[in-house]
Design brief:
The chain contains 8 helices and no strands. By secondary structure, it is mostly helical.
């Protein structure tokens, strides 16, 4: 019973198979049609994901963080998480895990990091991916509003960091 998720997957697949037999529906053919549609969607979304991946890696390796970190008195990882949160959920989540491992679960830094992770969103990633997929060219103020919310969340987290003893 160590890996219960495997059992859940098997039970789900068996239940779908049994329901399809009872309803006399060709589950295999439906699966193939769904897989074809998913491949089309994946191929359409892939360029947008690739651009975001390259942009995150270029920004991460350019060295601008060292200049910004020297001017602030907050943990380096928290600043990096705050910068990457609007761009990449995975990068900010990995920074949060790094903060928790380094400072401990009950530390002020871990608390602030989890508030930042839960209080903001991957605005650039989500809007680029979905607006690009749908074909929306004129986003009006949605980028600005989303990034402003992310910035306000980061500012409030920094204020909270200095308030908490």
């Amino acid at each position: 019973m160590q890996n219960i998720s495997y059992y859940i997957i098997i039970i789900f697949l068996l239940s779908v198979f049994i329901v399809s037999i009872i309803k006399k529906h060709n589950a295999y053919e439906s699966f193939i049609i769904g897989a074809k549609d998913s491949m089309k969607t994946g191929v359409t979304i892939l360029p947008y994901l690739l651009v975001m991946f390259v942009a995150v890696n270029v920004f991460r390796s350019c060295g601008i963080f060292e200049d910004i970190i020297l001017s602030l008195k907050i943990p380096n990882e928290l600043l990096i998480q705050g910068i990457f949160r609007p761009i990449s959920s995975h990068a900010s989540l990995s920074m949060m895990v790094s903060i928790i491992k380094e400072y401990g679960v009950d530390s002020k830094e871990s608390f602030i990091s989890t508030v930042l992770q839960g209080g903001s969103d991957t605005t650039v990633y989500v809007m680029s991916l979905y607006y690009g997929y749908i074909g929306i060219k004129h986003t009006r103020h949605s980028y600005y509003a989303g990034l402003l919310c992310d910035l306000l969340c980061f500012i409030m987290v920094v204020i909270l960091y200095f308030i908490i003893q």
